[in-house]
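User: What would this chain look like folded?
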Amino acid sequence: MVAKPDIRPSNPRFSSGPCAKRPGWSVAALEGALLGRSHRAKDPKAKLAEVIERSRAILGMPKDWRLGIVPASDTGAVEMALWSLLGSRGVDILAWESFSKDWATDITKQLRLADARVISAGYGKLPDLAQVDPARDVVFVWNGTTSGVRLPNADFIKADREGLAICDATSAAFAMDLPWDKLDVVTWSWQKVLGGEAAHGMLALSPRAVARLESHKPAWPMPKIFRITKDGKLNEGIFKGETINTPSMLCVEDALDGLRWAEALGGLKGLIARSEANLAAVAEWVARTPWAAFLAEEPATRSCTSICLKIVAPWFTALDAEGQAAAAKKLAGILDKEGVALDAASYRDAPPGLRIWGGATVETADIKAALPWIDWAYAQVEAEFGRKAA
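Assistant: Here's the prediction, encoded as structure tokens.
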């Protein structure tokens, strides 16, 4: 029987969103928040603009791109892009996990675009990227938050493409190097890699995307919350801190704290290094753990943020779907009860297993401390469910 570990993670929070706060965070980080102020007043607006400018600098965004704060987290940013930009040409949707499938549903069943093609793959794999047509728009996630499968590069996107490349990068931004020259729209939220609070999204637009916005009028009514243009021109105020609706200045202060922390680490390179170190720690454990494997089948596609694991033990694979789900739930439940790996269950639509957030706010030492607990919890699950499979 596996012995119960003695060492516990200092921070057992491994949720994939909202994610762990930066190391050393406390409510004192919010003391500068401009509460009870209009977000349109000079000083609060300056705070919003500061979030935009610090984000641009850390990510290395080209100077001719626009970046704005928008409502409803990454979901709102993606929906704003889809509703505002699509419809003038055919669109390819790459779908290989829950959220990319959601975007496919919105495009085909809500916007009801007639010329929409879904190029899909199951959990653990990437779709056939060679099918993407550069004459068409393409919508995709950079990192599959619910599958742990990321794009290894953007070689499938042509430099001389006619269509727009619309990228949901919510669990990739600040942890992976995004190739801005291959992208036209990039979205993310504050609640992922920098550990910010929920409900606010970021929308980045290339000059090509701006040109589309100013030349294309969607065939459907546009809710106020999605309107990026005014009188046929880009609403530049959105990209200077003039948000469409009221933001939380408390969340703004928290976002600034995360950005300053990122700068102190050395910016994007430092953030990437921390995330990759977390992936490496899990990979080393997987290599010596016969019952566990990455959900991502190809090493080059393994996410360094949403690290998804599956159980490959013969007793587990012999169970039916209901039994596998119950066993995986039991495993995550033991970790949660012990307080050593909170919110580590796989996403509800994903294959049963574990999902460990490895973004930059997570300390590698905490992941290394949690792994023996996973071994211990697994031994208990095997003892109970292995008999049922026998």
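Residues 364-389 form the longest helix (26 residues). If you want, I can go into more detail on any region.
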